Amino acid sequence: MWGLKKSPWVYHAALSPCNNCDIEILDVLTPRFDAERLGVRLVGSPRHADALLVSGAINRHVLPRFLELYRQTAKPCVVFAVGSCAQSSTIFRDSYNIVGPLDKVLKEVDPNPIVVYVPGCPPKPEAILSGVIKALGSL
Amino acid sequence: MTVALIFIASVLIALALGALTRWVDRKVTALVQARVGPPWYQPVADVLKLLGKETLVPEQSQGMGFLAAPMLGFAGACAAAAVLIGTLLGGEGFLGDVVVLVYLLTIPAVAVIFGACASGSPVSVTGASREMKMLLAYELPLLIAILTTLLRAGAGAPDFRFETVLAFQRDHGWLLYSTAPDGAGFAVSGIIGFVVALVALQAKLGLVPFDVAEAEQELMGGVISEYAGAPLALIRLTKMMLVCLAVVFLGTLFLGGFDFSTLGAGVASVLKYVAVLVLVVLVRNTNPRLRIDQILWVFWGPVTALAVLGLVLAAWGY
User: Is the minimum CB–CB distance between B32 and chain A shorter than 8 Å?
Assistant: First the structure.
């Protein structure tokens, strides 16, 4: 558990977002905010990841792919719902295409996922980083 | 009995030095990018975390090969550590010479290819094919560069033992610049050999600008993209050990070896190690990644030509 707190490797899973949250997530991983001092590293493959940074209101096409991606992430893992769309689908919740907020769809593969909510539209990089620190501190 | 103790001691030294080397790598990278890097225990935390995660085996992979490959690579790296560090520690009997070491150092690369081909994923297979091409590219200049030093250390006939190399450097100065007393004095082939060996080792370690096999943004991890948990921890440990062994190898062949008999010599050894390591890391941070066809062109063209020039100069005594 100490290792997991000190070295969270993140995988950026963008599930039909409007890309504002993605821009902020990419900003967090640049040298200016220096996420590496917390041990955070961006990895290219979900099998290497400990944290999935999920952004976007999940739509019907990406849902089976996201569930497969979650199964491919080695447990224990934390899912960060970055942005208001991942938390609650906000203004898109009655859309024909949107299948619902993150924690609802995640229950299909994992009855007890660890989900961390970072609200904002989009959340500032400082907010994302603060969310990561608080989540790791309470693990 | 003592051989077993030397084996265990060298593996432990290689692991500890490897973790420290990895931290220096990340810290220097951070400083070059004007930020503070991770704390000193970060590589240890990474490995411990990976050991605590579940091991995933993809359905389309060949399970046995997939899981055996990291162990093979780790075993190869441990054996190479035993030969190199064990000989430097003063092991009695024949632990190995330069030929054995070069042979053992290729085992991790072959194991990576083996594991990637057993992964059953097109991304891994692409990475494996690139790693195979790189093996063809960098092995030749590396061997030629090593031969330049061995030629001068053996006074005309290449002598593959570590004792000869170290004894020559004790008596005549570093192989980086000196020839035997009846030679031409300053050895240009030493500098050429050092530069070629540095470039070839950068490719062997899979560091930018030659890291196409594990291209993070392009290939999603390439050769190791299907590994998770404990096998991934083994792969990363192998990589850490390889970086440490490569720096120690360069130091032994070109910079007079690592001698801890007196305090002054000990400090000099540490500075040598850190200087070569910082050189490797700075090359890593200031260059873009080359494509695989560019890598082949670079190694089969300028680098091999330079290495051959160095070998000819060494044979003539320059």
Answer: no
Contact A44 B221 (CB under 8 A): yes
Would you kindly state where each structural domain of chain B is located, as residue ranges?
Answer: 2-316
Residue-wise pLDDT for A24-45, tens only, equals 999 998 989 988 888 898 888 8
Given pLDDT bands bounded at 50, 70 and 90, which one contains residue B91? low
- Note the pTM of the prediction, 2 decimals: 0.89
Distance in angstroms (rounded) separating the CA atoms of residues B63 and B120: 10
The full set of domains in chain A, from first to last, is 2-137 (3.40.50.12280)
Nearest CA in chain A to B55: A74
Residue A89 to residue B270: CA distance in whole angstroms: 56
SS (H, E, C) chain B: CHHHHHHHHHHHHHHHHHHHHHHHHHHHHHHHCCCCCCCCCHHHHHHHHHHCCCCCCCCCCCHHHHHHHHHHHHHHHHHHHHHHHHHHCCCCCCCCCHHHHHHHHCHHHHHHHHHHHCCCCHHHHHHHHHHHHHHHHHHHHHHHHHHHHHHHHCCCCCCCCHHHHHHHHHHHCCCCCECCCCCCCECHHHHHHHHHHHHHHHHHCCCCCCCHHHCHHHHCCHHHCCCCCHHHHHHHHHHHHHHHHHHHHHHHHHCCCCCCCCHHHHHHHHHHHHHHHHHHHHHHHCCCCCCHHHHHHHHHHHHHHHHHHHHHHHHHCC
Which of B40, B53, B119, B211 would best serve as a mutation to test chain A binding (most A beta carbons within 10 A)? B53
* CB contact (8 A) between residue A45 and residue B217: no
Q: What is the pLDDT of residue B262?
A: 82
Cβ partners under 8 Å of residue A90, min gap 6: A57, A84, A121
- Please choose, from the candidates B202, B193, B189, B228, the residue with its C-alpha nearest in 3D space to the C-alpha of residue B317: B189
- Residues A74, B229: C-beta atoms closer than 8 Å: yes
How high is the ipTM of this complex?
0.88
